[in-house]
Amino acid sequence: MHNSKEINSFKMANMAHKTGVYTHPDLEIHETGANHPENRTRIQKILQTLQPILNGHNSVEMVTSFEKMPNNILNLAHDEQYIQRVLDTENQMTDPSSLVYLDPDTCISRGSFQSILSGIHATCQAVSDVVRGNYNNAFCIVRPPGHHATANGSMGFCVFSAISVAAKFALQQDNINKVAIIDFDVHHGNGTEDIMQHDPNVLFTSIHQRDLWPYMHHDNHGPNNNVYNFGLDELADPQEYFNIIHQHIRPLVDTWQPDLILISAGFDAHKNDPPQDTLFNDPPGRQNLMESDFNYITQQIMDMAQLHCNGRIISILEGGYNPDVLASCCLEHVQTLSRAN
What is the tens place of the pLDDT at every residue in 76-116? Predict the structure, then answer.
């Protein structure tokens, strides 16, 4: 009988040495209004910027068609009552141009449910493909973000949690017994924590600005000792991010020994994000990170993945609200991931 590490080593020898970039046209259907910072321009700009490497880079491949996923895929992370409430809210909308706010920051339009579900399907397809060795790693260009959505509610632009569903879906795959999530969005991934703290097979770590919305930073490790939050002051030196990676997150991952690493890739800690008055609650220029700093963080996570899970990483887009900066960060993020190929 083979143990999982032996099976994983066999899979590594047969792995396609490519990075998969996952998205879907339906993601543009979700409407948020002209002045909402989370809008379709974000992914349009990313895809436009990625075109040169998607068209001429042998180790990067676009994926936009997915296998049929279970009808109850959202139930992996969300309560049925909440899922039905979102669906019912959309079905009651008679004006195709109208918006309904689920909370003060998060709205939906006609078609939002299926649009957001297509992003969930993209992330789960990425998990399936990477676990089966079709790709070394993957980046999922999905919207809206998901890491603030809790098991039973929306929050902060987030309706459903793609990364939480992906983690639960991963644990259903052969030889995936432990998953680690690393969230480097400038905001605390409170929704992911809300869902994952109850799963002893998932490690959740979040690097975020401490004194920033949603103001839920804490140092408790949850009922399963699997939650680790690392808060930074405003305008922290990028070296402080690197120190947290080296001194805290790397040892946690080494102890956890995950079979898969998931990244909540928010690029809103960039020095030039958001532009003036773009976000409802946040000032511009909250942190000092540049593209090269995100690249360094990504490379450190890749090193952890190479040591523990044959390089298997699924990175899922979260925040980032300056479209030009976001697109630049995503381009370099994909280029960094593709260096493993």
Answer: 999 999 999 999 999 999 888 899 999 999 999 999 999 99
What whole-number distance in Å separates Cα of residue 85 and Cα of residue 90? 9
Give the Cβ contact number of residue 173 at 10 Å: 16
In a domain, 6, yes or no: no
| pLDDT over 60 at 337, yes or no | yes
5 found inside a domain: no
Helix (H, G, I), strand (E, B) or coil at 21: strand
Question: For residue 64, what is the domain's CATH number?
Answer: 3.40.800.20
Please tell me the distance from the alpha carbon of residue 162 to that of residue 151, in angstroms, as a whole number: 12
**Domain limits for position 72:** 18-338
DSSP symbol at 90:
H
The sheet that has 137-140: what strands, in order across it?
A: 60-63, 19-22, 137-140, 313-317, 260-265, 179-183, 202-209, 227-232
Q: How far from 48 is each of 76, 315, 318, 324, CA to CA, in Å?
A: 33, 19, 18, 10
How many Å apart are CA 284 and CA 268, to the nearest integer? Answer: 10
Distance CA 228, CA 249 (A): 9
Instruction: Specify whether the CB–CB gap between 223 and 198 falls below 8 A.
Output: yes
Confirm whether 10 is domain-assigned: no
